[in-house]
Amino acid sequence: MEKRRRRRYSEEFKADAVAMVEEQGHSATEVARRLQVDRSMIIRWRKERGSPSEPAATLDEAGHEKELRALREEVRKLRVEKDILKKAAAFFAKEPL
């Protein structure tokens, strides 16, 4: 059986990963998935840099969820309006001038 080699990450890679969480507002889980590293690595790198722990980021996620719900509702309303306008355009296109 082949022994797995431990991957080494540069300080720049770690700093970029932490910046994605702290500055861009992504969750540690999302960043870990994108970078194909374990979530605990992201959390450890944040702690090494004196960054707040994961629960602070979770509060940001709640805000993102609220915004996402609002945007989905807006998209739903816009689709309804678009359908009404399409029907109105078809109706007026059939009417003789």
Explain this structure:
The protein has 97 residues and is mainly α. It has one domain (11-94): Orthogonal Bundle (Arc Repressor Mutant, subunit A). It contains 4 helices and no strands. The protein has helices at 11-22, 28-35, 39-48, 54-94. The protein is elongated, with a radius of gyration of 23 Å. It starts with 10 loop residues before the first helix and ends with a helix.
Major β-sheet, in short?
A: none
Strand content: under 5%
CATH architecture: Orthogonal Bundle
Q: Figure out the total of helices.
A: 4
**How many domains make up the 3D coordinates?**
1
Count every beta strand, where a strand is a DSSP E run of 2 or more residues: 0
Question: What is the SS-derived class?
Answer: mainly alpha
The CATH topology is Arc Repressor Mutant, subunit A
Helix content: over 70%
- What string, H for helix and E for strand, traces the elements in order? HHHH
